[in-house]
Amino acid sequence: EAQVTQNPRYLITVTGKKLTVTCSQNMNHEYMSWYRQDPGLGLRQIYYSMNVEVTDKGDVPEGYKVSRKEKRNFPLILESPSPNQTSLYFCASSSDGYEQYFGPGTRLTVT
Amino acid sequence: AQKITQTQPGMFVQEKEAVTLDCTYDTSDPSYGLFWYKQPSSGEMIFLIYQGSYDQQNATEGRYSLNFQKARKSANLVISASQLGDSAMYFCAMREDYNNNDMRFGAGTRLTVKP
Predict the structure, then answer these.
(1) Does B102 sit within 8 Å of A102, measured CB to CB?
(2) How far apart are CA B110 and CA B6, in angstroms?
(3) What is the pLDDT of residues B33-64, one digit of tens each?
(4) Of A44, A48, A98, which is closest to B33 when you measure between CB atoms?
């Protein structure tokens, strides 16, 4: 089954404790992206990648890092999480940058 | 500057009636794509419909159609014959082709279908 998976689905952590949210897709898609969703703001793009080793900043990259060492994986790293990074995070992939397939979301709470 | 504007935070529609969800956008890029996504209460994001800026005809996908008015920079979603399962958040989004994969989303409209 074609899908985008994210782990963990739910995470509660404390300020400053490094964390990684994994994202994996099995569709051999070139494009992958990370978004955060906050009430009243819709989805905002954090980072995107057009291929292995090619990443670029989106709208709200501060406080986040990504890497794309393999085509299928695109982890999101928060080196020192802060409470304002409490949000719902989505990973997405696309073959052409147009129709995006979204993962199920990761709800992160930073206390 | 806000690139995608959805002015209706919430909408109600009677089952079996049609409803229009508004979306306006702002871009100077001549080539762009417009998208609508549905987010039910379960949280997943579901792609509904896509319109390219150079497409001559309005996009349609089953009960969904996109009313594309390029001069007015609007891309409204029309849902015909609403069903209870259409109750969800709906997001309009735009991708500017010269800005690669930078996707911008609106704040969303919560649609409630009444029986």
Answers:
(1) no
(2) 11
(3) 999 999 999 999 999 999 999 998 999 999 99
(4) A98
